[in-house]
Amino acid sequence: MTRKNLLSFLAVGCGVVMAAGLMAGCGKGGDGSKSGAAKTTIQNKGSDTMVNLAQAWAEEYKKLAPDVDVEVSGGGSGVGIAALIRGTIDIANASRDMKPQEVEQAKKNTGNEPKQFVIGYDALGIYVHKDNPLTEISIEQLAEIYAEDGKFTKWSDLGVTMAAGKDEIIRVSRQSSSGTYEFFREHVLNKKDFKLGSRDMNGSKEVVELVANTPGAIGYSGMGYNEPGKVKMLKVSSKKGEPAVEPSVANTMSKKYPVARSLDLYTLGEPEGAVRKYVDWILSDAGQKVVEANGYVPLSPERRKK
């Protein structure tokens, strides 16, 4: 073999070794989450109501466990649940319960039954523009505004006097994959379909932003997205004529506020390894402080220990 041929052979051989070394660094951890040589990645997807909270958890947990990356994305509760059913994520965030057919499909696809973790509570705020004179509303009135057979199309139908040209009610809603959409349809519209013609937003933040910039608008979103001075959250009563209750942490914890719900995490079976540690941290005092700091209602101390 000539000297030139020998050098070529050695160069090719080194390239093969280097490529093999790079490929050997790819793989998955024993807990089902992606892992590199020194890093573990937990895939977390779902509820737009919870996406800011989930990102805050991820950032805070990084300080405690620098070798764990929690990748957070939204898209809605339905999107997160669909990914869990396919087995492509570690944790699904949801602002609604999984449906029985979704649980069965997950078991069929993955062999594991989804495990639910309640991690806090949220009051679903009813938002209007800051200049709207309305201060309270009933669930019956909300149904008249949003349901397909609802008769309210103008603010004057509720006895509200708006500025000239602003009497039309601009309904702001969420896309159908949203857990907030599902919750509102079930608990406010009594499972009736939504009236056509609403402006359907992809995220909770977008709902509040549109209401803030539209004097005749009304929308629903998590109370953690409140923007005081730009929008107003209405007090809500279960029935017209009954006392209306302000959406707040105290009224949600006492169950006085009528439009409240749990915030959930779902895993495929009992979580293990890095995912187990992360869920346990979320349920700890430290993780629950993040829930409260983001405007949601944390679990009671007794509930955290379960």
Task: Describe the protein.
The structure is a single chain. This protein is of the alpha/beta class and 306 residues long. The chain has two domains: 31-121 and 261-304, Periplasmic binding protein-like II (D-Maltodextrin-Binding Protein, domain 2), CATH 3.40.190.10; 129-259, Periplasmic binding protein-like II (D-Maltodextrin-Binding Protein, domain 2), CATH 3.40.190.10. 36% of the residues lie in helices and 22% in strands. The protein is built from eleven helices and twelve strands. The chain has helices at residues 3-24, 51-64, 77-86, 100-110, 139-146, 179-187, 204-212, 249-253, 273-282, 285-293, 301-304, and strands at 34-35, 40-46, 68-73, 91-94, 114-129, 136-138, 170-174, 199-201, 217-222, 231-233, 235-237, 260-268. The strands form two sheets. Strands 1, 2, 3, 4, 5, 7, 8, 9, 10 and 12 form a ten-stranded mixed beta sheet that branches. A two-stranded parallel ribbon has the order 6-11. α2 (51-64) links the parallel β2 (40-46) and β3. The longest helix is centred in the first third of the chain and has 22 residues, at 3-24. The radius of gyration is 24 Å and the shape is globular. The chain starts with a helix and ends with a helix.
